[in-house]
Amino acid sequence: MIPTSFDYQRASSLDDALAKMAAAGGEGKLLAGGHSLVPLMKLRLSEPKVLIDIARIPGLSGVREKAGRIEIGAGTTHAEAASSSLLREKCPMLADAAGEIGDPQVRNRGTLGGSLAHADPSADYPAAMLALDAEIHVKGPKGWRVVKAGDFFRDLFTVDLATDELIAGVQFTPVKTAAYAKLRQRASHFAIVGVAATLDVAQGTIRSARVGLTGASTHALRLSSVERALAGKPASAKTIEEAAREAGAGIETINSDIHASEDYRRAMIPVFTRRALAGALARA
Ligand SMILES: Cc1cc2nc3c(=O)[nH]c(=O)nc-3n(C[C@H](O)[C@H](O)[C@H](O)COP(=O)(O)OP(=O)(O)OC[C@H]3O[C@@H](n4cnc5c(N)ncnc54)[C@H](O)[C@@H]3O)c2cc1C
Asked: Ligand 1 within 6 A of 77 CB?
């Protein structure tokens, strides 16, 4: 299919992008990697009158360390995140998750900001952002806003982001004791079930855990009951086995689609929760 006609503009800075969005009067859309937006435009599910390309804004991409925290620019491609030596050293789970997104073409064009804004229910980054308790830094006409990942993903393709705002990047405290495990669709590699887990382990005890789930529901969410079942317990395979057993039991809405039934997804949540937790513990 061919999209409806549109104007193309290239933004030179965040403020320029915001000004161009304002000038488009609600008819504009930001274009990053185009790997989610362009298919929607071809299907005419999205018909922006103006495309504002933010892919070449200087400084919008890159993985940096700032006072012990990691900052990733919204324009960072999945391939850049996957190959970041900083992430590999300090937070390998996130590099692993980025490296499992799609195929090389998708990873070379698709961006962190685009993935978070689009919020596909099967996207990988949202689970990782939840497990890292990341902050999403948003800029709009009224200035800057910081949204916790836990408050950002709200519903199907719905996030805490106004149409006149943009994501500039994310920040989080890196966690080495973390892993991502996913059951992927064979063709696209989107998650049928994806689980990101971070553990805080000291003297053989799991002090706390954060577990993010994607693919299974309308949007990524934390598996709080699993987190509670792990806190204060010995850091062992037995603890993980017991905590993961009922993973996903309380989730009301589970997706059924051409890739997997609700029952199958429900059955896979404990399996991939256990794998993610075991992978995280192996890094302790
Ligand atoms: C074949 C295929 C396989 C894929 N497999 C996977 C997979 O396995 N796992 C996975 O997670 N994803 C997968 N994806 C999705 C891919 O990761 C996309 O790149 C991503 O969802 C969107 O990023 P983008 O940069 O391409 O965004 P775009 O398509 O350019 O934009 C998507 C949306 O986000 C908005 N947007 C973009 N950047 C910003 C910003 N900085 N601030 C605010 N809004 C913004 C746009 O306006 C648009 O509404 C796949 C895509 C394809 C085509």
From this structure: no
Yes or no: say if 247 and 270 are a contact pair by the CB < 8 Å rule: yes
Q: Which residues pair with 66 in a beta bridge?
A: 69
Q: How much is the pTM?
A: 0.97
Candidates 173, 185, 207; CA nearest to 265 is 185
Q: Say if ligand 1 is within 6 A of residue 34 CB.
A: yes
Longest CA pairwise span in the chain (Å): 61
Measured from the Cα of 138, ligand 1's closest atom is 42
Of ligand 1's listed atoms, the one at least distance from the Cα of 30 is 47
Q: pLDDT (tens digit, 9 = 90+) per residue, 61-86? A: 999 999 999 999 999 999 999 999 99
Main-chain phi, psi angles of 172, to 5 degrees: -160, 160
Which residues, including other chains, have CB under 8 Å from residue 91's CB and lie 6 or more apart?
Answer: 70, 132, 172, 174, 175, 176, 178
